[in-house]
Amino acid sequence: MAEVAKLRRTVFQRFRCFPSWLQRIIARTLGCKVRFQKILGCGSFNLVIEALLLDHQEDEQPRRVAIRIGLPGELRVPLPLAISGYAATLFLARLDLPAVVAGPVYVARPPLPYLPRGGSHFAVMGVAEGVPAYNVWSKDATLAWKKAVLADLAMVTLQLYRHPLDSLGSMEVSSSDGSPCVGRMLQGAVSLAMERGIEVGELSPGPYSSWTEYARNQIEGFVLLYGDDPKHGKSIRANAKLVLDWLVNKFQDPVENDNKFQDLRKSDNKFQALGKNDIKFQDLGKNDNKFYLVHPEFGLPQVLLDPDSGHVTSILDWDGAKTATIHSLAAGFYMPDYYWYDDPDEDEMCEFFKQQLIQGGAPELAEHLTTQESPQLIFEQQRLGNNVGGVDKVQAALRSFCTRLQGLGMIDPAEQVVCSIIQPWSKSSRSSSSASSAASSGSSSSREEAKAQEEDSGSSTESSEDASSSSEGEEGTSSEEEKEGGECVA
């Protein structure tokens, strides 16, 4: 009775209807009878209900499934991201990996309560067994138990490594045969610009054939989106130029371009700051054309375990899954990286995980596990590979990325990384007049001192020259400060 009451209360709170109404809508969409059993989970994005599916033939055994329904509101998972999760689980099912395989994503017609027609969706999947890792992974767990968890996660990493994909983008379902494939980067800057109706010219939303093509499109997409922002536009353009120049010098041959992006930059003054030297992007990085499926948000809540043996039973939440480079895959499923307490066994666990990768025939994966200096990994850590959440976060992410590259010696330390801009109009007229009066008073006082020295020592020519040079130096400094416009450089 407690489960029924919880089900009734949760459905009514989220959809303002009773469970029977929701059952009928889903039953009509699936073409079979649906009986809700209990709530399996409810977060910010989805409501997951355990249900029985009954065919119209009475002799058929009911199927036990989990039905995941997107919640009303802006926080719910958009339909394209849900489809990418479905495509990812189809891919994982072929590899026999411990993930909950989602069934087809259905768009409910008529719409689910309080959701627009065509914008509501739900997915049917297997019921995930196990206990969330955050409930059992702790300092009290034995090292042998943790190694059992890591052995399974290393196996997941190895299987994904053995099945690379040919391009970089978000997962999607092929319209021809329904198989999983790689499509455009759903949360990328270029995709967002296209959704806002911004002309992107030769920029591409993906899929991308190389990491450098992907990084360049992301950075130039951010310039399109936020290059005119009055607060951070100048900072974003300046730091974007640093990144694009670095991409040219680090990864490509500086040969003459076929004018692929020249027309775009001529037609849009936001690109004038990005430099005049166009290049042909020819990738020189090792393994730059191999990509691997990675989890979009891996962590302790996404892993279900057998609490006794430590074996991984399921990995959840593949919505928004995409492909990435080997640098992201290497540590993508290394559990201690996502635990918020220092673990006394961390060094031994890291060595164990590396040995699992080496014994599995992937020593290059083990090499990248503890290497935090790859620009590809830093790029993803700063969330520059997707819509990082508005102009403020884009500016901060670009600044942090440039600063990290400077710390690693990849960008010349003499280059200025712009961290913030204060608008000239934010200065009050009183402060401006005070600054000018202070400069003029300083200048006049210097002249008076010079005249006094001239009378005392008789060296009028030398004193007047020193005074005039001092005055000019102060006035030059003042004008330079005003011209700087409040830029803060790192």
TrEMBL record:
Q: Where is the composition biased (Acidic residues)?
A: 472-484
Task: List all Low complexity biased stretches.
Answer: 427-445, 458-471
The UniProt annotation puts the region (Disordered) at 427-490
- SUPFAM superfamilies noted in UniProt: Protein kinase-like (PK-like)
Top-rank lineage group of the source organism: Eukaryota
**Which InterPro entries does the UniProt entry name for this protein?**
AGP_Transferase (IPR051678), Kinase-like_dom_sf (IPR011009)
Q: What is this protein called?
A: Aminoglycoside phosphotransferase domain-containing protein
Q: State the species of origin.
A: Selaginella moellendorffii (Spikemoss)
